[in-house]
Predict the structure.
Amino acid sequence: MKVLVVSGFLGAGKTTFIRELARRIKGSVVVLENEFGEVGVDGDLLADVPIEVVELAQGCICCTMRTDFLRAVDEIERRFHPDVLLIEPTGVGSLSLILSSLSKGVGAGVSLVPPVTVVDAESFGDYIEVFGDFYRDQIAGAATLVVTKSEALPPEERDAVLRALADMNPKAGIVLPPYAELPSEWWDGLLGAEAADIPAPSEGVAALSLESLGLKDLSFRSREDLEGLLDRLASRTLGRIYRVKGLAPVGGEWLRFDVVNRSRTIEAWRPADGSKMALIGEDLDIPGIGMALWEFRMPSAPETGASGAGEHGKIRIEKS
């Protein structure tokens, strides 16, 4: 079983990249999703791809869930016998710690291939400034850097991001979407080599300590109400919210929504097995977020409170 880690910060586009890669792999594929928090969304985004998806939630596989992570890799090999295992860590995980765990903890018959990191070009400067060595660790440890969201940048800003990435990791191959323009040889090459000796984890680098809120049983009267909620969450008046993602019925149709730093996506989606929303950030104003949900969503609104742990719309909060 070949194992490929697809790393990248919150909202960089890891799941979209994995969708594209999985369609091009010759052989059986399993995806191991490490969602941060109790409410997982990314698994629903892979539902139309002919692969098995295994989800590990509520923590980060590079630290608090290391044992569960390695046990899951072994169980996947025994149960599914896939040709390829694609691992999508949570965006707040340290790539060097994940690679170190894999190199020391997996059994015979498992080979680690050179990792990929997906980089959000729009947010690159902000994240380098705010997250420093942690963010650099994801970039420096990759053999391939896939640079997303560069099309909206002025050419000089895009080129500056590409130069900075080349300086931080001169050995990595750097590619940009659209994925349809990448030749089949490139996709095959991602799985065609074994990882070199894994370096020791970067000194002082660990998973980020962020908060996660998970909500279920959401619906909105209109797209305008959903936009109003997302505007409120992005205003920084309710905490530093770095990521909002979810699926919900909105005015009679299902929509997928995703907010990352400067960018926002809202698109039509197929009906899911229950609506859900996840928020990740720091210093989250739990009562304020609850009030915003009461204002914008359709009845009945979720209960609020950090201790809520039920399944019917209560807000839940955990730290990695």
In short: The mean pLDDT is 83. DSSP finds nine helices and 14 strands in the chain. The longest strand covers residues 240-250.
